[in-house]
Amino acid sequence: MTPATLQLKKDQERRILAGHDWVYSNEIDTGQTPLKPLEPGQPVEVLSKRGRWLGYGYANPRSLIAVRITSRHREHPLTASLFVTRIQHALALRERLYPTPFYRLIHSEGDALPGLIVDRYGDLLVVQITTAGMERERGNLLAALEQVVRPARILLRNDTAVREQEGLEQGTEWVLGEDQGDIELSEDGLRFQVSPAQGQKTGWFFDQADNRRLLHRLAPHGSVLDCCCYLGAWGLQAVATGARSVTCIDSAASALAAVQSNAALNGLQGRISTLQGDAFDALRSLRDDQTRFAMVILDPPAFIKRRRDEAEGQRAYQRLNRLGLEVLEPGGLLLTSSCSFHMGREAFVQTVQQAARRSGRRLQLLFSGSQGPDHPIHPAIPETAYLKTLVLRALD
């Protein structure tokens, strides 16, 4: 299909020339090149006001991000062969970094395939398509994954809410092979049962793997609280690295059952306890009971999913961290994360500091982590650096 032409307004090409891959709807000269008549996901080429060719991409008139750039080489639009090349580049990086095939294989803009997430669990690929443009290329994409990776099974986890913003239906589908239930993965010597078809996201959070390794250096010897624990990745690593006991909090009974199963799988069940409930309510109850921990781990879901939620989300992060600090022993360690890409690292540090001031604590920042290298950051797209993980020492 011949790409439609979209022309930018005067001086709106600077960010694209600097390497960013998103074009917002208010940057397009819709008087000269109307956006609304385009189909969601339709291929386009983007020109500056003076006619300079900037790149190929795909458009969606329903989205604030009206165009996502897919190629800056005029001779290489997004085709089946380009999918193969990009996936080969992504696979080469992961095979260099990881001894076993358990990682994020494709990280959207970080791997020059915007709107695409692929997590690998051995011979199983779990795919999330989040944009209309990538949905339109689904056939080429799946064929390229089969050609390059040779998986036995492919699951589409297109049940993410972000698809609604693109006008796409939600659902899950096995496009290669069939559901064989839970699978087992290993992380730093521990074994975990994971459900790629039914768990959160694609079943596991590979992005925190490097940060979890910090526990080996921190060597928590007292009691640990793992809040928003999901399958217990943080909590079990804490026990394995020396914690006397770990209390895991989650709102989902199924997650806590999985924590106990994973603890038993590793022979650690005697030092793991669980508490079901809302994170804020559970922390208040522990505080009121004067229960204290040598380490508190806070790894909540994103509180800021849209720019307009920023103020409310920042207040939620401050409340959560204040409660975490209030159940922390003097001299204890707070390990806290934010996966909201709308909140920058500096803003997150300031929010945790505000929480400390309100709780009467003085903080020392010891470590500041990001997502692992299987979630590569695009240097020109700050939004791809979404994960912030801080380790702080709290003093009275």
Automatic annotation (TrEMBL):
Gene Ontology MF term list? methyltransferase activity; RNA binding
Q: What does the UniProt entry say about where the protein is found?
A: Cytoplasm
Might you name a Gene Ontology BP term for this protein?
rRNA processing
**SUPFAM superfamilies linked to this entry:** PUA domain-like, S-adenosyl-L-methionine-dependent methyltransferases
Q: Which InterPro entries match?
A: PUA-like_sf, PUA_sf, RlmI-like_PUA, SAM-dep_methyl-trfase, SAM-dependent_MTases_sf
Q: Which family does it belong to?
A: Belongs to the methyltransferase superfamily. RlmI family.
Q: This chain belongs to which protein, by name?
A: RlmI/RlmK family 23S rRNA methyltransferase
Species name? Lamprobacter modestohalophilus
